Amino acid sequence: MASVSFEESRERFREIYLRQPLLHRVPFERWEEALREGRLRPLAGTRKNLFRLRRDFKGFAEGTVFSETLVVPGFPHIPRIFRLATGVPRYFEGPFFAEEKIEGYNVRLFRVEDEILAVTRRGFICPFATDRFRDFLPRLPEFFETHPNLCVCAEVAGPGNPFVGEWPPYIKEDVRFFVFDLLRLPEGRRLPPEEKYRLLEAYRFPHPEIHGPFSSRDLEPLKALLRRYEAEGREGVVLKSRDARVYVKYVTPVSHLEDIRVVFPYLGDVPQAYITHRLVRYVLSRWELFRTLDEEAWGAVGRRLFPELEAILERVDRGEPVTETFHLRFRTERAFQALLAHFRHAQVKVEVRSVRREEGYLVVELVKIYPRATSFWKNKLEGFAVVD
């Protein structure tokens, strides 16, 4: 999409502002200032007049998307608790549900005029999810005909996704969509779980496992569920109150180790504090669920971390870059080219290794190249000193 001037962007946003009463709580001059500073940007990847917020602004969350007829709020961040025994009673007075937390990436799907779009947490159009939702949510157009003021929040997960190096162990190829929330627009209020569950069943939307309701007075059934998820290599749960006002998440020990395994080779591109935080989470969740921090617990850290790191060090020592390989399926060539444009816009360096047609899909092998991670390991292997 060709870049547009500030003046053109301002006039396009003015058209939205004049027709969108929710925006009027902030004077147009402040929106204009946000546009000038780059906090507010035209949404690339569509011909519709849409804008997104790059950062939180005057009560509007990062990732919020605006049009003349639509406001899609940024998806709220869900707080994490580190101990069930004290965290659950602190936040839940009445019954609550536990939904499986899926390891993938989060998209919001909504209809704008005649088009259904999927946007990421930061408000970018996701060409991959926009292309593939038809394979997993075939009744989504019908859903939006009946419920035009709802937004569908889904996790895209599996080895065939273009962004995340982790996925549930029960997905062996390609991807799946899991609808985990429905938001009422424009305020972004989440539908209560039981109302949401009825709609998920009515439209046969795939969704995470649902358990409950539970009581904060007896947490053993919830702990038993999490021990099962640990044994199966699943990520954890999101706990949701019956009125949808309270959400908190709790993650299994093995999921923290998976996070470390996936990101450790990419230090330089990932903050080192990321590792420390997950080690702390691992210690606390392992101790609570299994009441032990024995040799097996620490041995698990090494078994997750070192095999892949050894291969990375050998490649860098040979002068090769740190890379990550993705195998993707697209319904259309247009979606594939849009994803490449998104990577260019996000300054992600990629290399396309192969493209072929298979069973009606465009099957792509794509490699992401991580220059900062390469430099991080290369400098150390080449003997450069660091003051620490």
Notes on the protein architecture:
This protein has 12 helices and 16 strands. It has 388 residues and is α+β, with helices and mostly antiparallel strands. The chain has 4 domains: 6-72, no CATH class; 84-251, 2-Layer Sandwich (D-amino Acid Aminotransferase, Chain A, domain 1); 254-317, no CATH class; 323-381, Alpha-Beta Plaits (2-Layer Sandwich). A 5-stranded antiparallel β-sheet has the order 7-6-8-9-10, covered by helices on one side. It has a 4-stranded antiparallel β-sheet with strand order 1-2-3-4. Strand 6 and strand 7 form a beta hairpin. Helix 1 (6-19) runs antiparallel to helix 2 (28-37), helix 4 packs antiparallel against helix 11 and helix 8 (253-263) runs antiparallel to helix 9. The radius of gyration is 22 Å and the shape is globular. The model has no long low-confidence stretch (mean pLDDT 95).
Outline:
With 388 residues, the chain is an alpha+beta fold.
Layout of SSEs?
Elements: H1 6-19, H2 28-37, E1 40-42, E2 51-53, E3 65-66, E4 71-72, H3 84-91, E5 96-101, E6 105-112, E7 115-120, H4 127-136, H5 140-146, E8 150-157, E9 176-184, E10 189-190, H6 193-202, E11 210-214, H7 220-232, E12 236-241, E13 247-251, H8 253-263, H9 273-290, H10 295-317, E14 323-330, H11 333-345, E15 349-358, E16 361-369, H12 371-381
Antiparallel strand pairs: 1-2, 2-3, 3-4, 5-11, 5-12, 6-7, 6-8, 8-9, 9-10, 12-13, 14-16, 15-16
Largest sheet: 5 strands, antiparallel
Assigned CATH superfamily of the largest domain? DNA ligase/mRNA capping enzyme
Percent helix range: 25-40%
CATH architecture assignment of the largest domain = 2-Layer Sandwich
**Cα-atom radius of gyration:** 22 Å
- Mean pLDDT across the residues is 95
Number of domains: 4
SSE order: HHEEEEHEEEHHEEEHEHEEHHHEHEEH
Question: Under CATH, the topology of the largest domain is which?
Answer: D-amino Acid Aminotransferase, Chain A, domain 1
Strand segment tally: 16
At the first level of CATH, the class of the largest domain is Alpha Beta
Which residues sit in consecutive blocks of at least 5 with pLDDT less than 50? none
Sum up the overall morphology in one term. Answer: globular
Spatial order of strands in the largest sheet = 7-6-8-9-10
Structural class: alpha+beta
End-to-end span in angstroms?
45 Å
Per DSSP, the total helix count is 12
